[in-house]
Structures are given as C-alpha cells and as structure tokens.
Design goal:
With 290 residues, the chain is α+β, with helices and mostly antiparallel strands. Helix content is 62%, strand content 9%. Strand 3 and strand 4 form a beta hairpin.
C-alpha cells in the first residue's frame, strides 16, 4: 500500500502471475475503489466487508461472498474492494468480481438530496396551502359520514401524542447507539405525521377550519398567537424532516456520520416535538377547554 490509497502496482505485487497478463483488471479495481469513495485500508473496518481465505477452493463459499470484489486464481483469493458483485470472466482460472453500479435513480437521489428535499417540501406545503385556500375542490374526495369527519380531530390528537412518544424514544435510542431501533422509531414518527396530515387535509377540504368557541379576548390574545406559532413551526420543520430522512434513505448508516444527518435530524426532531405538542394545545382549546 502507498499512503492511504490503493495503487494498481500493489495488485501486481500481491496477485498471482496470471493476473499480470490482464493489466486492465488492476485499472478496473482502482476505478471500483474510487467509485466507492472509501480508502482501501478502511475496507476491513466496514461491517459488510468479507474476509476471503487465501487458499479456499469451496465454490459455494466464494459465491456467498457476493459483497467482495476479489481476484480468484486457482483457489487463491485477494480482496480488492467491497460492493455488490457480478462475475466477469478474464481467462482460464482467473475471475474478477466487479462491482455493479448502483441503480441510476438511487445514485441520482444520493447526489441530489437538497433538490429532492426542496421538491418534496414544496409539494407538501402546496397541498396544505391549497387546502387552506380552497384551491382543492371538495367534490374530488369521497365524503365520509359526519361522525367519521367529526372524529378526525380526536384521532389526530391521539396521533400527535403517539408521535411525541416515538420521537422521544427514537432520540433516546440513537443516543444509546441503537441505530436499528432509532430508524424504526423515526420512520414510525414520519408515518404518524403523514397520517395526521392526510386526516387534517381531508377534513379541511370537506368542512373547512374549525371555529374557536371561546371568548373573543382569548381568541385574539391567546388562541391566534398560539395557533400562528404552531403553524409556523409545522411549516419550518418540513424541509428539515425530509432532508434528514433522505440522507438516511440514500446511504448506509456508516456514511451518515460524515454528513449533517445528526445536526439536521436534531433540529427536525425538536421542531416536530414542539409542533405536535402545540397541536395538542390547539385541540384542547377547540374541543375541551371552551
């Protein structure tokens, strides 16, 4: 090895003499490593890296190691890189497991998280503002019974309380290093948020906004400012939530430590918590306190 990178010359020194007849293989292996953006000495630290025995001849054992890019000559194996693999025949007794490219859409999403965040945020907020402004005709939606429509605010309050719990538990899980539990809880939180938004927009399109039943003084100096802050936080949190989720969805969790996922996710979670909590406050003022 030279420095921290991989050089084709290293392959020439370590691979059997048969490989030297195919100089293109070393160049291809180097291209695989540069595509992964991972320094060669760090490959062994990756949890999906596979150690290949120096003299294994078991073909099934080699096939199970589909994540290793390896040069395999007459039973001798040399790990070159790690990726999803296909087999390329290079000559008698010599095989190169070459990394397949990621799907084009997946690779595009990985490189354009900010653009996707802007697109999804714009669509979500356009739906909300369109519903509030009456731009979405109510006859486009099937109308549920009056009882079902009247139950939506109570259902959404229960969703908000559940989402507060899942966000806090997800935050606790990642602080303890439990990535799998954190992922499950935050995806659950997003699913709850989507359910809340669907129910809210459905009721809003069909029957409009709820009227405040309390005194005018409370309405002007308590309810309206409280509602305004709630709505503002709900709007601001949307791009943060999408950005954190898209980062997590487009790369392995090991790579997230080199991104702003933790910082953006913390902001998103905090805004989410405050918004859901204030939403319950709005619900209490509309349906229970007055």
């Amino acid at each position: 090895m030279r420095g921290t990178g991989f050089e084709p010359a290293d392959l020439y020194r370590t691979a059997p003499s048969t490989l030297r007849r195919w100089p293109g293989l070393a160049t291809h292996a180097r291209g695989v490593l540069s595509h992964l953006h991972v320094p060669f000495p760090q490959l062994k630290a990756l949890p999906f890296a596979t150690a290949v025995s120096a003299n294994t001849t078991d073909s099934q054992q080699r096939e199970r190691r589909g994540d290793a890019v390896a040069v395999d000559t007459s039973g001798a194996s040399t790990v070159v890189a790690v990726a999803t693999a296909t087999t390329v025949t290079a000559g008698t007794g010599t095989r190169l497991r070459a990394a397949t490219d990621r799907p084009i859409m997946s690779e595009w999403a990985r490189e354009h998280v900010p653009a996707l965040t802007a697109l999804l945020s714009t669509v979500a907020l356009a739906l909300v503002f369109g519903a509030v402004g009456g731009a979405i005709p109510s006859d486009l939606l099937p109308r549920a019974s009056d009882g079902a429509i009247a139950a939506i605010p109570h259902f959404n309050a229960a969703i908000s309380a559940t989402a507060i719990a899942t966000i806090l538990l997800g935050w606790r899980a990642i602080s303890r290093g439990n990535v799998r539990r954190h992922k499950a809880l935050m995806l659950t939180s997003f699913g709850l948020f989507a359910s809340f938004l669907a129910g809210y927009l459905y009721r809003l399109i069909l029957v409009g906004t709820a009227e405040f039943p309390g005194p005018e003084l409370v309405y002007s100096y308590v309810y309206l400012p409280f509602l305004a802050v709630h709505i503002l936080l709900a709007i601001v949190c949307v791009p943060f939530v999408f950005y954190a989720l898209l980062l997590a969805a487009t790369r392995p969790y090991q790579e997230l430590y080199g991104t702003r996922h933790a910082q953006i996710g913390s902001v998103a979670a905090a805004l989410w918590l405050i918004s859901f909590t204030m939403g319950i406050g709005v619900y209490l003022m509309l349906y229970h306190l007055y």
